[in-house]
Amino acid sequence: MSHTIAVGGTRRRAWAVAALASIVAVTGLVAVPGADAKTKKKPVPVKVMTRNLFLGADLGPALNATTFNEFTAANAAILAEVDKTNFPLRAVGLAGELAQKKPDLVGLQEVAWWRTNPTPGGPQQGPNGQFTATTTRYDFLALLQAELDKRGLNYTVAVEKVEFDFEAPADTDGDPNTGIAGGDIQGRLTMRDVILVNEDSKVNLKVKNPTSGTFASLFTPNISGIDVPVTRGWTAVDATATKGKGKKQSKVKFRFVNSHFEAFDDETQRPSIRAQQAAELLAGPASPKRTIILGDFNSNVPGVQAGDEQAYQTLLDAGFEDRTVNDDATCCINDLFAPTNTFDHQVDHVMTNMGKKVKLVNSEGTGKTPVSGIYNSDHAGVFSTLKISK
């Protein structure tokens, strides 16, 4: 009896195997153990950072001057403040931040270049102004790169874009009757936004298509009867990050966009200038579906200050998610030399529009303590590690 059952079971199993073989032959389906595991690629960890370097002085007094004498006096005070806030020393601390975190991609804002000329003239604005101040006083980009080089860090400039570029006389001797146009020296500020790429990245980072642009919506103060547009814009690259080798290799592609929205416009205006700039960013460089945008947006999370959230909310409404820690304030301090300071709100952000294709591994503020008796900037930096899936 048991022998008959065994034979019958064997026959049934043989018939099932034959039937399965027929299905495979017809459909071409082959079940390979572990096939799904081989085709599933691991996410690639990408480290990004946004860093406002602080241009070195408050431009408000010059922007708000009502007379030319007030303007030249304010310019002198600005040059003195830039000397005092000592970017060569601050560059040491900033390079230390990058050395500690080693981000793959860095978006820099307020990468100032200060130049002077001992023979003053009238106000001039780029890109078509007839500039005369050509002697470098502080080139923030060159100074930062020199400090990075000292640490053996291989960061190269992928995009460098000139933004606000303006020169004007400064009354450094306190006598409005000396010099030309009320000043005894000509000072020039060239603002730049920059993207740095870590050439020693552990994710085999490649970038291409470096691009930049200027916003159409600009803040234009009238300084002593002269309309001065405050040029702002964006920089961007297309990036590919690769992790692993052979069949285990994972590769992800994305757009990386760095920007600095307006700081001085009326936030009660709707839409504010910075909100209009956010909309321009969305319509242009940040329009691809796989995009990381970061920078100093001068816009806080909703519920902190009425109107201030407009630019940030514009990005949220377009499907971007914040990839920072929202309670980690990054702005802003008035005294770089104070032994302790409080950053009380967040305007520096890292955001993505890839939904669940991105996981925030960690995020933290950088530069929140002084180095050699001075803070690295009036902002803190923001560093985020993102795991990006294909």
Chart the SSEs and their pairings.
Blueprint: H1 2-27, H2 35-39, E1 44-52, H3 60-63, H4 68-84, H5 87-101, E2 105-109, E3 113-117, E4 124-125, E5 135-139, H6 140-150, E6 155-170, E7 185-198, E8 205-214, E9 222-223, E10 226-227, E11 233-243, E12 250-260, H7 273-283, E13 291-296, H8 310-317, E14 321-322, E15 348-352, E16 358-366, E17 381-388
Parallel strand pairs: 1-2, 12-13
Antiparallel strand pairs: 1-17, 2-7, 3-5, 3-7, 4-6, 6-7, 8-11, 9-10, 11-12, 13-15, 14-15, 16-17
Describe the structure.
With 390 residues, this protein is an alpha+beta fold. The protein has 2 domains: 31 residues; 348 residues, Deoxyribonuclease I, Chain A (4-Layer Sandwich). The protein has 8 helices and 17 strands. The protein is globular, with a radius of gyration of 28 Å. It starts with a helix and ends with a strand.
Count of beta strands: 17
CATH architecture of the largest domain: 4-Layer Sandwich
Task: Provide the CATH superfamily of the largest domain.
Answer: Endonuclease/exonuclease/phosphatase
Class from secondary-structure proportions: alpha+beta
Please give the count of helices.
8
Q: How many domain regions?
A: 2
Oligomeric state of the chains? single chain
Shape: globular
What is the name of the CATH topology of the largest domain? Deoxyribonuclease I, Chain A
